Every structure is written in C-alpha cells, then in structure tokens.
Amino acid sequence: MEYENENAGIELFLAHMNIEDFIQEAENFYCVGEEVEAGVSFEESFSQEDMDEIVETPQDLISHVQNPGKVRYGTASDLLDFVNTVSNTPSSSLLEVGEEMGVLLNKTDMVIKEGHYRIDLDVLLFPWKLTYKPQGPGHVPKGSFGKVHLAQDTKTRKRMACKLIPVEHFKPADVEIQARFRHENIAELYGALMWEQTVHLFMEAGEGGSVLEKLDSCGPMREFEIIWVSQQVLRGLEYLHSHKIIHHDIKPSNIVLMSAKAVLVDFGLTVQMKDDVYVPRDLRGTEMYMSPELVLCRGHNTKTDIYSLGTTIIHMLSGSPPWVRRYPRTAYPSYLYIIHKQAPPLEDIPESCSPAMRRLLEHALERVPARRSSATELLNEEALHPSREDQPRCWSLDSALEEGTHPLLRQHSQLSDSTQDSSLYTEDSGHSKKKGSLYVDLGALAGYYNLVRGPPSSEYG
Ligand SMILES: Nc1ncnc2c1ncn2[C@@H]1O[C@H](COP(=O)(O)OP(=O)(O)OP(=O)(O)O)[C@@H](O)[C@H]1O
C-alpha cells in the first residue's frame, strides 16, 4: 500500500494495529524444546569429583577473575554469572589476566586439563572450508563484532564453532538465550572462555555454512531447499515465540546449515518479552529484513520475526534481499522509509515462485501483525508440505534412494554422520573431493533427505 504522506501512513497503519490481538493465543510454555533450569539437568549427570570442578557461586567467579588460569565445568547459570562478571570487570583488571578462564557446559566433548582449556593446545581453531566454495585457504566469517572459527577439541575431536568477541564489545545478552534455552534448531552453547581480551563462545557448528554464504556462492536456492530451511527456522521460531522470545535478526546469515538440520545463530539482539508487546528503546535488526512495525518503533511482538523470515525467503528465492533490485543500495543509503511506506515487498517475489509458496509469503509478510500468521500456522501451510508431483526433483531423488539403484546415492547413504564425529586428522575418502554440480546438489539436499555427507575432512588436516 502506498501512502500519500508519511503522517497519513502512520495514522492509517496505527488504525489497523490491534495490540490486544498481537498474540493470538496464550503462549504454550515448556511444550517443545527444553529450558535449562538452574543447572539441575547438568549437575545431576556429574559425579562428586566432577562437582568439585563446578563453579558454585558468583563469588567464586569473581575470585575466578582475580585468580585466573581456571576453566571449569558448570551450569548454565554458572556460565551466565561468569560472563556477567567478565563484563562488569574493568578492562584494566582483565588486562592483567594472563591465562584463560571460563565455564564449559559440555563435559562430554570438551576436556579440561587441570583447570585449563588452552586455545591452540586443547582446542584448535580453523578457517571453514565449504564444499561449494573453491579450494583455498578457507574463510573466517565475520559479524559486526566477532569472527567465527571452526574449532576442534584435540582429545575428543568434537567439532564446534568458536565465536571470538573482543571483550569491549561483549554483552552477556549475547549468550543469555543460548545458555537458558535449548532446542534442536537453536545453536547449542557449549561454553565461554575469556582469553587475551577476547571472549570465546563455543557452540554447535553449522559446517555447511550460513544460508547467505550458500546464496552468495550458488545463487538463488531451489524451492525444495527453501522449504526445508523454512521448516527448520519455523520450528526454532515456534519454540522461541512460545517463550515470548523475539530473535530480532532473522536473515540468511543467521541461519547455518548442518548435515541434517539448520539452526539459528546470533542471539545478540534477542529479547524475552515481559508483556505482550515489546516497546524498543532502539532499532534492532538488519534493515532489509525489518518489519514495518519494527521500523515504526512503537511496539512489536514475536510476529516481527515471521516478517523477517518472509523477507529471508524472498532472498533465498531471488538471490537478493528484498528491495535492493528495485531500490539499488548505491542510491538508497537507508531502506527504513521505503519499508515504512511500501512494505510488504511482494513485488520482489520471483515469477517462478509456486502459488503455494506465494500464499505462504503473503501470510508471512502481512503488514498488520495481528493478521500475520504465527510460526505454527506457517508450519501447516500447504507450501511446506508439497505433494511429490509438485516436486519432481525430490521425487526422483527420493525414489532413487528408496530403490537404492544409483551408485553415487548409495555411496552417500552409506556414510556415517561424519559432521559430528569425523576428525580433522583422519584421511579423506575419495568421494568427498568430488566437484561439479551433482556434488553441490547433493550437499544442498543433505538435510532435506537426511543424506549424510560430512565435510571433506582432509581439507582441514
Ligand atoms: N554456530 C555457527 N556455525 C557456523 N557458522 C557460524 C556459527 N555462528 C556464526 N556463524 C557464521 O559467522 C557469521 C557471523 O556470526 P554472528 O552473526 O553470530 O556474528 P555477529 O557479529 O553477531 O554478526 P551480525 O551482528 O553482523 O549479524 C554468521 O553469519 C555465520 O556465517
């Protein structure tokens, strides 16, 4: 809808806003996923010997900072106490800290040795090698404040992502949601270390890279890939929204791919609402993916993430974020006014989009939040449950898998899930080096079909 002038637009928009309808039904707490409660679930699984290594009180953490060189196993609340302590400690005191300190949640896969978990010794950091990118030195994705490496525990060979944030930019809010809430579509936090003025956050690794990296390397995604990614993101959002949590930065670079699932990352802007409406003090998110109500800054709710997912789907379908084709970045330094005046960007949906996916997008990008579909409603959309006839490519691959006649597919289906377990040190088997479109296609399909194809391990070794 185009408005004559800005004020008229705001008035008309507000007239359509029914704040009481923002949340359509009572949020259903504790039904999906798991909230980590006061560390009980972690502590119950520890022996007394292990418990001796667990940080027990915030006071211990303060002495932790004063007596550095200790890394301990702990609970989610220990970890939050630790990061709060780090963030409240003057940087001059942190400068004196010579050794690493921190709290690890993952006792099974991260081995602390006599109070140490040393970078480059107990855990190694690597650049990422993505199967669809040309061979080379690999790359280290950078966000606004942090670099993210692939990490591997040298003892257990567990592969993780390690996000490095200079301490002056670190906020406890960066880890709070990941420490407190667990769901299979939210990157699981494994621990936090402070070393050399940098906070190291260890978490579940998206070894297939982010959706943005895939788009930048391979161009627009095919609809069945988008269906799979959307289902994964919606499950994560359904869980977050049931806890009144707004992610606030849903976009292709914050969705990372694994062999059998996709997870959300980057919870630095995330907020858990106390009421049904969150009235922001600042603008949170990434412009091109922002909802009109978020841009307006008068209050929004979890539906803003749904709108951002809609714009993310447009990016996956077309290869570009919404707006930028019609309003080139060179000419438009900011899109806020455009979003306010012109949202939703339905014109950016490519012609090739199926009618069912177009309908889903119309429901996700509905301008009035109360009328916009929820994550649960979108998960039930026809577009996310295509019939086999509508997905000829899936059908042929699926039938090939069932019949097990295609030698290459049979080879892939016989691989174990090496994403989790494979080692950086093991020799690579020949087929993971295959190049060419079929190889890329299978990589893209890995999650959709639960095909298991780990990253080529020799490239890391
Ligand atoms: N768990 C992970 N596994 C794999 N890659 C990851 C993971 N977390 C982050 N990344 C990669 O690192 C990039 C930057 O991470 P992240 O978004 O968390 O940083 P940021 O500084 O908060 O970024 P920004 O604020 O610019 O969105 C992501 O776009 C993604 O490519």
TrEMBL record:
Chain positions covered by the region annotation Disordered: 410-433
InterPro entries in alphabetical order: Kinase-like_dom_sf, MAP_kinase_kinase_kinase, Prot_kinase_dom, Ser/Thr_kinase_AS
Keywords: ATP-binding, Kinase, Nucleotide-binding, Transferase
This protein's record includes keyword Magnesium: no
GO biological process: intracellular signal transduction
UniProt KW ATP-binding keyword: yes
Pfam families, sorted: Pkinase (PF00069)
Chain ranges of the Protein kinase domain: 134-388
GO molecular function: ATP binding; protein kinase activity
Superkingdom field: Eukaryota
Gene3D superfamilies, per database record: Phosphorylase Kinase, domain 1, Transferase(Phosphotransferase) domain 1
Residue spans of biased composition, Low complexity class: 413-426
PANTHER family, sorted: MAP KINASE KINASE KINASE SSK2-RELATED-RELATED (PTHR48016), MITOGEN-ACTIVATED PROTEIN KINASE KINASE KINASE 8 (PTHR48016:SF31)
Name of the featured protein: Mitogen-activated protein kinase kinase kinase 8
Gene this protein is translated from: LOC107584407
